[in-house]
Amino acid sequence: MKNNFKVKVDSRWEFDIPVDEVLNLDSVKINDENYHLLMENKSIETEVVSSNFNNRTYAVKVNGTVYNVAINSELDQLIKSMGFSTGSAKNIKLIKAPMPGLVLGVNVKVGQTVSEDEGLLILEAMKMESTIASPCDGVVKNISVKSGDAIEKGQLLIEFE
């Protein structure tokens, strides 16, 4: 894996942006929604108009123009390719690890009712943190991991009733 973000803007343009470029971006956070960027000696004013973290979609105003942006890490792309998307994941009863990593936190308990897209646990893989979200509404039947566990690809994480 190349450690890139896949960025799609207005469903018209698609970019692969290396994580290193994002980390080295010359930006200043003005407040929770507004940022100032310097890129190629140009000043860019940005505002996060709306965001849906679970779907990794954002409406961003750049110098007065609003763009709809979808940002996915390689881990997000792998999770989606395993069927953890809204349309195809409705009948999933088992959530397995998409790749080796470290469980940083478990956000649910056995018996808890969860909603689709609700964060179940936080996984660190490839030096990135990703929230594993519920593919559907349901009730947690079993949790096979705890915070601090090292996990292998395909390992059972959570089971639904």
Give a short summary of the structure.
With 161 residues, the protein is mainly beta.
Question: What is the mean pLDDT?
Answer: 86
Q: Approximately how much beta-strand content do the residues carry?
A: over 45%
| CATH architecture field of the largest domain | Beta Barrel
| Distance from first to last alpha carbon | 34 Å
Helix content: under 10%
Give the name of the CATH superfamily of the largest domain: RNA polymerase II/Efflux pump adaptor protein, barrel-sandwich hybrid domain
Give the biggest beta sheet: 7 strands, antiparallel
Order of H and E elements: EEHEEEEEHEEEEEEEE
Name of the level-1 CATH class of the largest domain: Mainly Beta
Number of domains: 2
Largest sheet strand order: 2-1-7-6-5-4-3
Number of distinct beta strands: 15
What Rg is obtained from the alpha carbons, in whole angstroms? Answer: 18 Å
Description:
This protein is mainly beta. It has two domains: 4-73, no CATH class; 82-160, RNA polymerase II/Efflux pump adaptor protein, barrel-sandwich hybrid domain (OB fold (Dihydrolipoamide Acetyltransferase, E2P), Beta Barrel). It contains two helices and 15 strands. The protein has helices spanning 19-23, 74-81, and strands at residues 4-9, 13-18, 26-29, 34-39, 42-52, 57-62, 65-73, 94-96, 101-106, 113-114, 119-125, 128-133, 138-143, 150-151, 156-160. The strands form three sheets. It has a seven-stranded antiparallel beta sheet. A four-stranded antiparallel beta sheet has the order 8-15-13-10, with no helix packed on it. It has a four-stranded antiparallel beta sheet with strand order 12-11-9-14, covered by helices on one side.
